[in-house]
Amino acid sequence: MDMEPSSSHISQGVADTDSSRQRSTSPQSVISTRSLDSQDLTFVEAHGRTYANDKYYMPCDSPEQTRLGLLHHVYSSSLGGSLTTAPISEDVQRILEVGAGPGDWAIAMAERHPDTEIVAVDVAVWDLEGDRDLPNNIIWEIDDLDVFPVDDEDTETEKKGPSSGSAATPLTSIRTNEWTFTEPFDFIHIRGMKGAFRSWPTVYQEAFKALLPGGYIEVVDFDLTTIHTLHNTQLGRMLVALRQATEQSGYPLTGTHMEKATFDSAGFIEYRVRTVNVPFRIAQLNDAETTIGKLWLVIFMEGLEATNLRLLTEYAGWTAEQVREGCDKVREEFKAGYHDEMNTALRYVVARKPGGDGSEQEGTLSEVGLEMEVDTHIIAASDTDTMQVD
Ligand SMILES: C[S@@+](CC[C@H](N)C(=O)[O-])C[C@H]1O[C@@H](n2cnc3c(N)ncnc32)[C@H](O)[C@@H]1O
Residue 111 is inside which H or E element, if any? Predict the structure, then answer.
């Protein structure tokens, strides 16, 4: 069922249009944003959750906003309070935040870099203000950044998503829809966007074009494939069903968007990945680890329904009740200690667009990397850091 968003939701979610906004937005975004003023935006309500559109699988409602806020805390704790592993300079001019969500990262970054212009783009409207003041160096935009090769004769289906019921159709690479930002960025940040894009190579091509020479991209996600101890468990069954459902939806939840080859194919160099393992448990950890372990557990439990509900009901033939019962069983497994040894690998991938002044020398990135503040003590398992310089 389509639902009109409340007017307060819209006014909270959309910043006023002013001259700096016009200067910085893509033409597409201006159009999208104006469509909100004309009440064109619709949300989709299904099984008691609210979604931004008929495509993206995660909800954009108040419980999800709370969960994303907690998740932001885990991410920044995993870096000892830092917001990025990219070696960006203090006076970085322009940053693009792709899929900004309720804006926790964009706001924290804007506060730390008050002279930096941050363009925060999301396809959903979130309650941005809540009880906080928004920094005025963020430009909020509503836009769909999902780009992929499309057949000219297939324009009707180009934005087709899960609710269309269509499986991933291989599309011939005749034309590609594009990002249309009018000014380049020094840094592009993409976090927690697994499953949001149909063609990551195409997204990276657009990011490459949108960056200045020498600019950095950072992609952050957690890795479901590192979850162990799953045989004969409800968690294992749900993860298998989830993977199959996302493959059918055309937006597979894989880790290929974190692989070097995917960045290479778009022209990026100096691929580097930092992995931080976050525990799921609360026993046998020191105080700081216990805090993160507890928080991560709460986020995971809350995320079970948010992650599975739409995909399993639309693609795997589960009813909403079956999904909720499945989530309850997984919670019981955690309480019973089945998954006590589980860690999640948070991965931070950074790569650079060639060019720029003087940063072409080998070793530059690793030297900067050494200066990064990463408190390995806050995380129970090992911190590993690997880098490959082209
Ligand atoms: C899991 S949330 C992560 C939010 C934020 N990056 C963070 O780390 O807190 C994914 C976000 O991506 C947005 N999103 C999904 N598909 C998108 C698209 N095609 N274009 C822009 N944003 C999108 C969703 O609305 C949601 O806010």
Answer: helix 104-112
Q: How far is the CA of 123 from the centre of ligand 1 (A)?
A: 7
Query: Counting atoms of ligand 1 from 1, which one is nearest the CA of 55?
Result: 16
Q: In this model, does residue 83 exceed pLDDT 80? A: yes
Q: Measure the CA–CA gap between 226 and 43, rounded to whole angstroms.
A: 34
User: Where residue 75 falls among pLDDT bands split at 50, 70, 90?
Assistant: very high
Is 67 near ligand 1, meaning CB less than 6 Å away? no
What is the DSSP code string of 235-262?
A: HHHHHHHHHHHHHHHT----SGGGSHHH
pLDDT value for 359: 53
In terms of residue numbers, what domain contains 126? 2-387
Mutate to test the pocket of ligand 1, among 28, 29, 50, 68 (most ligand atoms within 8 A of CB): 68
Interval between CA 293 and ligand 1 midpoint (Å): 24
Residue 212 phi/psi, 5° resolution?
A: -75, 155
pLDDT digits (tens, 9 = 90+) for 319-367: 999 999 999 999 999 888 888 777 788 999 999 999 987 554 443 333 3
Residue 194 pLDDT more than 60?
yes
Q: Contacts by 366-373 with C-beta closer than 8 Å and gap 24+? A: 366/272, 368/87, 369/85, 369/87, 369/272, 369/274, 371/87, 372/79, 372/82, 372/85, 372/87, 373/79, 373/80, 373/81, 373/82
Q: Is 299 in the pocket of ligand 1 (CB under 6 A)?
A: no
Percent of the chain with pLDDT over 70: 70
Q: Tell me if 343 sits within 8 A of 279, measured CB to CB.
A: yes
Name the β-bridge partners of 240.
none
> Exposed (0-12), middle (13-18) or buried (19+): which is 368, by Cβ within 10 Å?
middle
CATH number at residue 303: 3.40.50.150
**How far apart are the CA of 49 and the centre of ligand 1, in A?**
16
Find the angle CA(201)-CA(205)-CA(209) to the nearest 5 degrees: 170
Domain count, the chain: 1
In tens, the pLDDT along 336-347 reads 888 877 778 899
Closest CA to 260 of 304, 316, 204, 181: 204
Side chain identity at 112, as an amino acid letter?
R
* 3-state SS, residue 50: strand
Q: Among all chains, which residue has been given the structure tokens 């993977």?
A: 243
- Strands 117-122 and 138-142 come out as parallel
